[in-house]
Amino acid sequence: MGKSQQSLAFHPLAQINLMKKDLKTYLKEWLSKAFNLSVLEKKRMAWVDYLRGIAILLVVYRHVLLGLQRSNMEVPSSLVYANMIFFSFRMPLFFILSGIFINGSLKKRSLGQIVYTKFENLLYPYLVWAFIQVTLQILLSKYTNSDRTLRDYAFILYQPRALDQFWYLPALFNTTIIYLLVKTKLHPPAWTQLLLGIILYFLSPHLDAISMLSDWMEFYIFFALGDTISTFFLKESTQKFLQKPLTLVWVTPIFILTQIYYLSRPVVTQGEFLAIALIGCFSMFVLAFRMQEWGFFPFLRVLGFHSLFIYVMHVIIAAFVRAFLVRVVGLHQPVILLLCGITAGVIIPVIVYNLLIKDNIGWFLFTPKRTTKEKKTKTPTATA
Q1: Eight-class DSSP state of 353
Q2: Which of 39-43, 206-210, 212-216, 287-291 has the lowest mean pLDDT?
Q3: What is the rounded CA–CA span in Å between residue 134 and residue 139?
Q4: pLDDT for residue 11 is more than 90
């Protein structure tokens, strides 16, 4: 190296530029790892991640909003109405999506393998995180808006509806296992599963004292519908139809009209709610396909891929953020608190999982058996 090159290498500006370059490279690598951005490069059905992303955002929105209301904050009525709209279809989306892919799972795995996979992906995280959340709510009762006692641990076994967001995981587990047992042992025609789903749906309110039973009964119809339409739905011609801009154009006013009807009624019947939910779900499917075509907001796909981890952690994180902003910062603006809670509720769980849990010290929080790095990484979602 010549003198001019040596002097350039030790020049303060050159060193600063080199440090900036190294910092930029480090930040890029950190962000890629923290958010697992490699999922955007994999050959995946983008519409699935978009759909999960939409659903999990709506779930987080609801629970952050409820947290503000339980803290006796006056929330604008428009935000409450928005929550009511989203309520009609956000959870049925997950069940329909799970049903669409259950037949593919049966072709690749035995019944026993699927049962264990569902236990590992759904029931195990439920048991672990429900225990963690209840424990934190008891220990930090002076700083939270929850009123937990030791009795709430028993709810984990029979009344998950009393445990904030956690009911969905055992509900999907029970729905999947019971549906698979009926499908593989009795081999009924598809219409029989749909009829059974409708019967269970209308019976479910009579057993809501034990939500471990009533929840899977209520959502069995959506899972059965997903499996029934899967062959038709996954056809290229069907997906081309869903991707067309014109499809979104004519679906949107129907969606709006049904939601106006839903909001205008003080009470809707079970049958009306079922119809409104199905129209909302179909509308979200169409939107997800259009987003895939547009390539719009790809980070939503990242959230969709990590939906399970967001689901179990977001209430804890949103509660901590709300308490900090209110008690320490002195912030009492509900809209700002809502936005901060939603942002933290979807971002922090993704970072925590990828940096501290996956292949790291916290592996046991989501799986009873540590997976070696050599093994192929599975899709960490409740609908895999």
Answers
A1: I
A2: 39-43
A3: 9
A4: no
Distance (Å, whole) CA 347 – CA 189 = 43
The Cα–Cα gap between 132 and 368 comes to 16
Residue 72 φ/ψ region, left for φ over 0, alpha for ψ in the -120 to 50 degree band, beta for the rest: left
- Helices in 147-210 by DSSP H: which ranges? 152-158, 168-181, 190-203
Half-sphere exposure of 96 (CA within 13 A, CB side): 22
Task: Determine the residue type at 95.
Answer: F
pLDDT of residue 3: 52
Of the candidates 349, 345, 302, the one whose C-alpha atom is nearest the C-alpha of residue 49 is: 302
Percent of the chain topping pLDDT 90 = 75
Both ends of the chain: CA-CA distance in Å? Answer: 56
**pLDDT (average), residues 369-375:** 64
| pLDDT in the model for residue 219 | 97
Q: How many CB atoms lie within 10 A of CB 138?
A: 16
Nearest to residue 230, comparing CAs of 362, 356, 361, 106? 106
CA nearest to 366, candidates 351, 343, 382, 346: 382
Burial class of residue 306 (count of CB atoms within 10 Å of its CB; 0-12, 13-18, 19+)? buried
At which residue do the structure tokens 């014109």 appear? Answer: 246
Question: How far, in Å, are 50, 64, 243, 315, 324 from residue 344 at the CA level?
Answer: 19, 10, 32, 10, 12
221, burial (CB in 10 Å: exposed 0-12, middle 13-18, buried 19+): buried
Assess contact for 68 and 338: CB atoms under 8 A.
yes
In terms of C-beta density within 10 A (0-12 exposed, 13-18 middle, 19 or more buried), how is residue 163 classed? buried
Residue-by-residue DSSP string for 215-283 = HHHHHHHHHHHHHHHHHHHTSHHHHHHHH-HHHHHHHHHHHHHHHHHHHH-SS--HHHHHHHHHHHHHH
- The domain ranges of the chain are 1-34, 45-365
Q: How far apart are CA 322 and CA 303, in angstroms?
A: 21
Please determine, for residue 84, whether its predicted confidence score (pLDDT) is greater than 90. Answer: no
Q: With b meaning 16 or more CB within 10 Å and e meaning fewer, what string describes 243-276?
A: beeebbeebeeebeebbeebeeeeebeeeebbbb
